[in-house]
Amino acid sequence: MLYLLYEVIQNSEAGRVLNFLRYPTFRIIAAGVFALLLGMLIGPKLIARLRLKQHGQSNVREDTPDSHQKKKGTPTMGGALILLCIAAGTLLFADLKSRAVWVMLLLTLGYGFIGFLDDWLKLSKRNSKGLAGRKKMVLQTFFFLVAVFGLLTTWTLPDGSFGPTLLINTKLTLPFIPTRWFNPDLGWFYVFFAWIVVVGTSNAVNLTDGLDGLAIVPTIVSAITFAVLCYVAGTTLSIADAEVVGGVSKLVATPLYQYLGVLQVPGGAELAVFCAAIVGAGISFLWFNTYPASVFMGDIGSLALGGALGGLAMLSKNEVVSAIIHGIFFAEILSVMIQVTSFKMTGKRVFKMAPVHHHFELKGMAEPKIIVRFWIVSILCGGVALLSLKLR
């Protein structure tokens, strides 16, 4: 919004004063700081209101260790605070002409709506079942298809005839492998692959949200990692590189994304603004959610954040790398899949309880120790993902 205002008045005296708004680096930092401050300011009142509305209701899942029952009475749906801060930071500082920004807002708020329905049903029906899994999947697919075919597809061909054309690159990049060596084009099959990434990530974050602060810090780490990846792939930032011409070595300016062997991402800098808003909103929520939590994220937050991270993986062309970035989330959903498959096939459980963080709880590990160790692993995963840039 502020960027659009700057574009309107850029040739005036006021426009010269606001010249700093044209720099993505300023807007990235500003979006994060604004989201953080907003969350810290409105968080206490929002939590107090949630506590009043949910007084006397159990917000603890039934399929958790018995130790979680002491958390009864803690209000849920705190993810609403995260969504409000993300939306405000993005709308204020991102370039709203960017399709990528609107795709991310649609996925985030759309999946947040699904989570709201789930949380509301749990509270109104006074049970932990919520929205049926099949209905949840249908709604997740609906918002994904609206984003892809409504915002990432053009329906008019160059010759004026009617026909769909994807506006997103359908090629895949793989970690540690330069795009010039292996860069497969999936064509329209890419839509199905991207659906798996977005919906799978959303559900993985939802499963991870089982301990105080467990899901939000890996989300923050992932958002920081994506901010770097998006900025690198979406700007004209160049690096001096040596090139031999006619036997003479000279320095030439090479775009950073080309130097690192990644695909160029239109609107990448604006995606970095969105990532910064996630970071700021996430840190403000952590202030209230850290052990022992004053508020739970709820599905309104976990499904939305998972959808956002899946969307970032798709738009930044890091679909495969996201398996590394989201190492914690991937391990959590994989543990559930292993547990279910093993029990159905052999009648035996691999873990004491799934997702895997509950397994460590039942083995006697203290909740804060589990949380912090998962955070450390998440930071490690983000670092490995960034290393893969240079090794391409």
From TrEMBL:
Gene Ontology terms: biological process: cell division; cell wall organization; peptidoglycan biosynthetic process; regulation of cell shape
Membrane topology category: Multi-pass membrane protein
Transmembrane segments: 20-43, 77-94, 100-117, 138-157, 188-207, 214-234, 271-288, 295-315, 321-343, 370-389
EC number of the protein: 2.7.8.13
InterPro entries: Glycosyl_transferase_4 (IPR000715), PNAcMuramoyl-5peptid_Trfase (IPR003524), PNAcMuramoyl-5peptid_Trfase_CS (IPR018480)
Reaction equations catalysed: UDP-N-acetyl-alpha-D-muramoyl-L-alanyl-gamma-D-glutamyl-meso-2,6-diaminopimeloyl-D-alanyl-D-alanine + di-trans,octa-cis-undecaprenyl phosphate = di-trans,octa-cis-undecaprenyl diphospho-N-acetyl-alpha-D-muramoyl-L-alanyl-D-glutamyl-meso-2,6-diaminopimeloyl-D-alanyl-D-alanine + UMP
UniProt entry keywords in alphabetical sequence: Cell cycle, Cell division, Cell membrane, Cell shape, Cell wall biogenesis/degradation, Magnesium, Membrane, Metal-binding, Peptidoglycan synthesis, Transferase, Transmembrane, Transmembrane helix
Localization annotation: Cell membrane; Membrane
Any one Gene Ontology cellular component term annotated for this protein: plasma membrane
Family: Belongs to the glycosyltransferase 4 family. MraY subfamily.
NCBIfam families: mraY
Name recorded for this polypeptide: Phospho-N-acetylmuramoyl-pentapeptide-transferase
